[in-house]
Amino acid sequence: MDLYIDTANLDEIRQASDMGVLDGVTTNPSLIAKEGVDYGKRLSEICELVPGPVSAEVIATESDKMISEGRERAKIAGNIVVKLPSTVDGLRACKALSDDGIKTNMTLCFQPLQALMVAKAGAFLVSPFIGRVDDISGDGTELIAQIRQIYDNYGLPTKILAASIRHPKHMVDCAMIGADVATVPFDVIKMFMKHPLTDVGLEKFLADYKKAFG
Ligand code: G3P
Question: Distance, CA 26 to ligand 1 centroid (Å)?
Answer without folding.
Answer: 10
